[in-house]
Amino acid sequence: MGGLAEPRTQRASGRRRRRTQTGTELSRDTYLDAAVNLIEKRGAGLLSTRTLAAAVGADPSALYRHFTGIDGVLQAVADRMIGTGLDRWSPGEDWLTSLAALARALFAVYVHEFPRAGYALASRTTGLPNEIRAVELTLELLHEGGFNDESAAKWFVTLSDFMLGQAMLESAFVNLPSDIQNADTASWLDLATRLPEEAHPHTEAAAPHLSSLMVRSSFERSLELILRGLAASPRR
Q1: Which DSSP helix (H) or strand (E) runs through 49?
Q2: Which CA distances in Å does 9 have to 41, 80, 99?
Q3: Domains in the chain, start-ordered, CATH in brackets?
Q4: CA dihedral for 51, 57, 62, 63, sign (positive or negative)
Q5: Which one, of 111, 135, 129, 130, lies nearest residue 121 by Cα?
């Protein structure tokens, strides 16, 4: 999981670093790498001090040298995912295209790269450096667009809730067994053939369009609506 690398923590003065049973240095990054692998393979619900200890080859109590507990590990994984998206983001030609690019970069990490972690952690607040960095960057772009402090804060909430909510929805579908995914998709593709005659005229008329739209991501269409709202909003 090299794409989720984060800076190594500084050694505490006079404290010797522990190593795993295989000789690997037991650091904060070691735990985060193992946690991401476990979540993507088995789901966040099975992450515990014991499963994580087994993954890194250490005693369960060693975890508390770096984290307050498993929830602290999950928060750090979420913050690392945010940092990955920020590091891959490139600003656009103006504040609006830059915001769109930022939303796309973060969405890609949560849904396409780490869907199980994305589903489990999209609702979490980390309070850690990368999250604060994302807040600052978003507000800076909104101020650049002419929004005052209050309006920028409101739009930040709207943008973050949209991106994370959409990420949770789509990563949840990706995590379903393939047979269930196929069945759900088929329900939309066959919608027109399953409607009672003359009972749902509006649904029948829209069925060809729904069959196409409902089996694809709505992220870009929804993002476009938000961008139009931003562009049309009163500003300084």
Answers
A1: helix 49-56
A2: 26, 14, 31
A3: 90-232 (1.10.357.10)
A4: negative
A5: 111
Query: pTM for the complete prediction?
Result: 0.86
108 half-sphere exposure, CB direction, 13 A CA radius: 14
CB 3 within 8 A of CB 24: no
pLDDT digit of tens for each residue in the chain (236 aa)? 334 544 333 333 333 445 555 555 789 999 999 999 999 999 999 999 999 999 999 999 999 999 999 999 999 999 999 999 999 999 999 999 999 999 999 999 999 999 999 999 999 999 999 999 999 999 999 999 999 999 999 999 999 999 999 999 999 999 999 999 999 999 999 998 988 877 899 999 999 999 999 999 999 999 999 999 999 999 87
Tokens describing residue 171: 């990563």
The CA-atom distances, in angstroms, between 18 and each of 24, 118, 153, 181 are 9, 30, 43, 44
Question: What count of other Cβ atoms lies within 10 Å of the Cβ of residue 131?
Answer: 19
| H-helix segments, 112-218 | 115-121, 129-144, 149-174, 178-189, 191-194, 201-213
| SS3 assignment, position 3 | helix
3 residue type, one letter: G
Distances (CA, A) of 157 to 14, 62, 104, 144, 192: 44, 37, 16, 17, 38
Q: Which two tokens stand for residue 226?
A: 């938000």
CA separation for the pair 121, 77 (Å, rounded)? 8
